[in-house]
Amino acid sequence: MRRQASVFLISTGVSLMLLTGGAYRWMHREQERLMARQRSLVTETSATSAGQDVTVLSIPKIKLEAAVLESTTKKSLLLAPGHVEKTAWPGDAGNSVIAGHRDTFFRRLNELQNGDEILVTRGHRRFHYFVSSKTIVSPSDLSVTLPAADARLTLITCYPTYYIGPAPKRLIVVATLQQAIPEHAPQRLFAKTSSSLPATP
Fold it and tell me: Is 128 a catalytic residue?
């Protein structure tokens, strides 16, 4: 009996590892595809509309560079951080909100401190943000997604980072736009939400 239980646990663990590995490969392939699309858009001289631009989020301190999708569905958040629907486009005036999983793209988001730089590239422009606050809120606190008078970027992920099961809180990192410059080198991607903050396991 004990042997059967041991075999079951081992086989279950192996299956979970294979499933997880497959999900990560799928995520990396999609990110590579989105980055390639961004590079091709950058070579085009004609301007694109906001919805056609590819947006890329870069955070040097935590070595993050990821294409952002215009969606916050469960499937899309497995592939990329997602731009929350009806919030400002990155680089525009207002509150641009991006959500991401705590066990993939936003795993190290809690390491950010005031003054850390966040870069967002959209179309042919690069926007420089600097972290201005970091807070913990409940999933029902939608105040962090409300419009703002300034140009800010709000990053959301579940918290605590290493919590087992659905995390009870949300980590909120807010950064303020400091500079926008033309971008003539590789750039990046972008994405959209509901009645509560995105659940990002």
Answer: no
